[in-house]
């Protein structure tokens, strides 16, 4: 195992699950590919629908996504076949399917042979509360900055709308800024979900983070759906539309606009939530809740221990009775 896997603060794995240098190299390579794939998706979601996008940009995004996908599919299948036998086949298949459908999840995928997650700068780690807490601390400050980075972007988008339409360079800068914010939230969400002991419970609790990651993709799908709809083709062809067809198009456009406004609102709400969540009062309330949960767990453990002691005492008392009975003289 290389020195990065034994970086300060890393949790050393047991001897039976120590990743090989080849596994570490593969983890680094696949992380880089997954991050590149996420960047291409960000470009597709936030740039491809822009009126100023060039055909060259579209070709790079589409060709890159198509070229990378087979690599993730092949590596996911290899992981299922070469997994550790203690890992249930169903679990390995579900993780592989997740990567095939959304390759960005490969950034923080639990290795099927070792059960560890490779994290940049700190190496191989066990998933669980310890890693999740470290990720919370690592992402806390930067994500607060990214959440409020949306403010100047929104001001530019709404107050300088005419300039954005007239200047392609300004539109490109705006799209890149929005894409960077989205990528930051997506990376944080992928790593935290992978590290959390209860991923589904975490996703339900952090529904705002889920919305921030999912809504732009929903907006992209709606945009493509509107452009590909037969009604849109008729409109581009200059054919007359019936009032019902026009009303249907208007509903689709309203839904698309609603997704955009909801995403902007959720970003602002997320920034405010993170800012307020970092106050001493909020941290104290969170710590007190954790203390209460731990005390409840401790009471349950003590109750279980008392029950075991009682059972041991009863068994010992019964043993003494049987010993006395055997040692008693036979009349």
TrEMBL record:
GO cellular component, one term: membrane
Transmembrane portions of the chain: 29-48, 60-80, 137-155, 167-187
Subcellular location: Membrane
Organism encoding this protein: Gemmata massiliana
Swiss-Prot/TrEMBL keywords: Membrane, Transmembrane, Transmembrane helix
InterPro entries for the chain: Volt_channel_dom_sf
Region feature (Disordered): 312-331
High-level lineage: Bacteria, Pseudomonadati, Planctomycetota, Planctomycetia, Gemmatales
Major subcellular site: membrane
Membrane topology value: Multi-pass membrane protein
Signal sequence residues: none
Name this protein carries in UniProt: Hypothetical conserved protein
């Amino acid at each position: 195992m290389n020195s990065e896997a034994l970086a300060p603060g890393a949790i050393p794995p047991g001897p039976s699950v120590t990743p090989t240098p080849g596994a570490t190299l593969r983890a680094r390579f696949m992380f880089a590919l997954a991050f590149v794939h996420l960047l291409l998706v960000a470009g597709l979601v936030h740039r491809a629908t822009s009126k100023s996008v060039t055909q060259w940009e579209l070709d790079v995004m589409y060709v890159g996504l198509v070229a990378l996908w087979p690599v993730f599919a092949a590596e996911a299948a290899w992981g299922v076949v070469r997994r550790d036998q203690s890992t249930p086949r169903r679990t390995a298949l579900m993780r592989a399917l997740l990567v095939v459908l959304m390759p960005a999840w490969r950034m923080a995928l639990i290795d099927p042979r070792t059960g560890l997650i490779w994290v940049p700068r700190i190496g191989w780690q066990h998933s669980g509360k310890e890693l999740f807490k470290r990720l919370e601390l690592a992402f806390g400050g930067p994500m607060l900055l990214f959440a409020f980075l949306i403010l100047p972007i929104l001001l530019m988008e709404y107050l300088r709308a005419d300039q954005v339409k007239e200047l392609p360079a300004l539109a490109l800068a705006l799209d890149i800024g929005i894409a960077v914010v989205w990528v930051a939230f997506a990376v944080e969400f992928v790593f935290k979900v992978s590290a959390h002991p209860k991923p589904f419970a975490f996703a339900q609790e952090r529904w705002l983070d889920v919305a921030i990651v999912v809504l732009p993709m929903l907006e992209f799908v709606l945009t493509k759906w509107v452009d590909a709809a037969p009604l849109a083709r008729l409109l581009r062809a200059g054919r007359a539309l019936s009032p019902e067809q026009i009303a249907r198009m208007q509903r689709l456009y309203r839904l698309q606009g609603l997704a955009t406004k909801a995403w902007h609102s959720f970003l602002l709400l997320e920034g405010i939530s993170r800012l307020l969540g970092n106050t001493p009062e909020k941290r104290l309330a969170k710590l007190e809740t954790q203390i209460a949960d731990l005390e409840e767990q401790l009471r349950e453990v003590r109750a279980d221990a008392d029950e075991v002691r009682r059972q041991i005492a009863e068994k010992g008392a019964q043993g003494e009775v049987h010993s006395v009975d055997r040692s008693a003289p036979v009349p």
